[in-house]
C-alpha cells in the first residue's frame, strides 16, 4: 500500500489581514507570503466546499477584499 502523502504546510498568515486591501495587491501579497492558490470571487459566488491546503479565497466587492478565508 502506498503511503499517504503529507500536504505542505500552509503559510503562517492570517486571512483577516487582507480584508480592505485592493484585490490585485492582496493577491500579489498572498503569493509572496507562500499561498499556492489565490482565488478571487464575487459576492455570492457558488463554490465547492472542499478544503485545499495552500489556497486562500477572497470575496471581492468593488475591487477590494471584503472577506478572506483559507481552503
UniProtKB/TrEMBL annotation:
Gene3D superfamilies linked to this entry: Trypsin Inhibitor V, subunit A
Matches recorded under InterPro entries: Prot_inh_I78
Pfam families in the record: Inhibitor_I78 (PF11720)
UniProt protein name: Proteinase inhibitor I78
Species per Swiss-Prot/TrEMBL record: Streptomyces shenzhenensis
Amino acid at each position: 500500500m502506498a503511503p499517504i502523502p503529507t500536504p505542505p504546510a500552509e503559510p503562517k498568515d492570517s486571512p483577516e489581514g487582507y480584508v480592505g486591501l485592493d484585490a490585485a495587491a492582496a493577491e500579489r501579497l498572498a503569493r509572496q507570503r507562500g499561498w499556492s492558490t489565490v482565488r478571487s470571487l464575487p459576492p455570492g459566488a457558488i463554490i465547492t466546499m472542499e478544503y485545499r491546503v495552500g489556497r486562500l479565497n477572497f470575496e471581492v466587492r468593488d475591487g477590494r477584499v471584503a472577506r478572506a478565508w483559507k481552503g
